[in-house]
């Protein structure tokens, strides 16, 4: 049987996850500046004091959510790089995974948190450092090797790869915002989203 200390740790971990999920909803709805710890506590169904027992501030909670969102994005790109296939097939697989994740509201809200963190001046210094520090950890920079490889192979159009990566994520973020504002929003399939990136002359890519 699990020891009491292990059970207590499981309870603490579950409680922290409960608070983080509630905070994700509140931050997405109200933004970090307008959000109060009491709002998060109410959403989580917990007392104000209990939230402070696990976290020092709303800024700490926001920072953790941004890290979670960033790590989630980088992880899917790493999986795409490991996917067997051509660069365009890797990009298509990654796009399918991202679009399919929009079925889960938590993933969609994490995209919105990243947008808030990228566009708001009133964010914790730790978050600013995370976003402006090591650019090799940003989704745009991590996607560049796939795009560049696709261009070398003639599968992806010849254009500035950074511009293409920025455009790609602008599509993704825009869809995430629409999905939050309009839950029934139809999400395009990967073929449609990738159409403007494909070099039709050099690609053996076929629509299904």
What does this protein look like?
Residues 13-73 form the HTH tetR-type domain. It holds the Pfam family TetR_N. Residues 36-55 bind DNA. With 208 residues, the chain is an all-alpha fold. The chain has 2 domains: 1-55, Arc Repressor Mutant, subunit A (Orthogonal Bundle); 62-208, Tetracycline Repressor, domain 2, CATH 1.10.357.10. It has 10 helices and no strands. It has helices spanning 4-34, 37-44, 48-54, 58-82, 87-101, 105-119, 125-132, 139-152, 161-181, 190-194. Helix 1 packs across helix 6 (105-119), helix 4 packs across helix 6 and helix 5 packs antiparallel against helix 8 (139-152). It starts with a helix and ends in a 14-residue tail after the last helix.
Spell out the CATH superfamily of the largest domain: Tetracycline Repressor, domain 2
What is the total tally of β strands?
Answer: 0
Q: How many H/I helices?
A: 10
Low-confidence stretches: none
Structural class: mainly alpha
Q: Approximately what portion of the residues adopt beta-strand conformation?
A: under 5%
N-end to C-end Cα span: 52 Å
Q: Architecture of the largest domain, CATH level 2?
A: Orthogonal Bundle
Q: What is the CATH class of the largest domain?
A: Mainly Alpha
Average pLDDT confidence is 87
Most strands sheet:
none
Protein name: TetR family transcriptional regulator
DNA-binding region: 36-55
Keywords: DNA-binding, Transcription, Transcription regulation
Domain HTH tetR-type: 13-73
SSE blueprint:
Layout: H1 4-34, H2 37-44, H3 48-54, H4 58-82, H5 87-101, H6 105-119, H7 125-132, H8 139-152, H9 161-181, H10 190-194
Helix pairs in contact: 1-2, 1-4, 1-6, 2-3, 4-5, 4-6, 4-8, 5-8, 6-9, 8-9
């Amino acid at each position: 049987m699990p020891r009491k200390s292990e059970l207590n740790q499981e309870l603490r971990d579950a409680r922290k996850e409960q608070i983080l999920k509630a905070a994700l909803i509140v931050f997405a709805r109200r933004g970090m500046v307008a959000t109060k710890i009491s709002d998060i506590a109410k959403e989580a169904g917990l007392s104000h004091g209990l939230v402070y027992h696990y976290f020092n501030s709303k800024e700490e909670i926001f920072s953790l959510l941004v890290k979670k969102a960033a790590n989630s994005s980088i992880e899917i790109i790493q999986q795409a790089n490991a996917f067997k296939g051509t660069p365009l097939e890797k990009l298509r697989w990654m796009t399918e995974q991202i679009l399919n994740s929009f079925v889960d509201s938590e993933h969609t809200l994490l995209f919105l948190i990243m947008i808030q963190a990228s566009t708001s001046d009133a964010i914790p210094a730790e978050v600013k450092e995370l976003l402006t520090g090591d650019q090799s950890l940003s989704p745009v920079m991590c996607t560049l090797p796939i795009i560049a490889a696709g261009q070398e192979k003639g599968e992806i159009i010849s254009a500035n790869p950074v511009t293409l990566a920025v455009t790609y994520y602008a599509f993704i973020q825009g869809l995430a915002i629409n999905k939050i504002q309009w839950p029934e929003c139809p999400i395009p399939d990967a073929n449609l989203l990738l159409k403007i990136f494909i070099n039709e002359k050099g690609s053996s890519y076929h629509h299904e």
